What does this fold into?
Amino acid sequence: MAQPGREADVEIIQRELTSFARRARATAARIHPELSLVSYTLLSHLDEQGGCRATDLAAHYALDKSTVSRQVSALERSGLVMRRLDPDDHRVQVLHPTEAGAEILRQVTVSRRQIFGERLADWPADDLARFARYLERYNEAARED
It folds into this structure.
């Protein structure tokens, strides 16, 4: 039997996460108009991983390869990403942020942290820590799907 309070809570969570995603896209556009939220996410992953293949990006974010290909092409045209041959397998190209890409990533990251810091400034430390753990737990469950 369904639990009415639980269903209502799940509906609120779904609505609020959708709202969060919309705001995140809008904020990304304001912070750096040429760097969409998807592009920022891909560039950030490339930076964190020290480079990776486009197929690895698609698998990690559960995106279609054509979507990743379009985003990577746009990042390359903007001079933010470059391809290098994999030293272990010259048939494979590994994507890396360029110096310009790494610099824009640093700037955007600072701006995003400032925005989040301002939004969360009044939260007690315990609430902030709990929220962080809940988001990690939610995203971990989503990765297992």
Q: What stands out?
A: The longest strand covers residues 89-97. Strands lie at 81-86, 89-97. The chain has a mean pLDDT of 89.
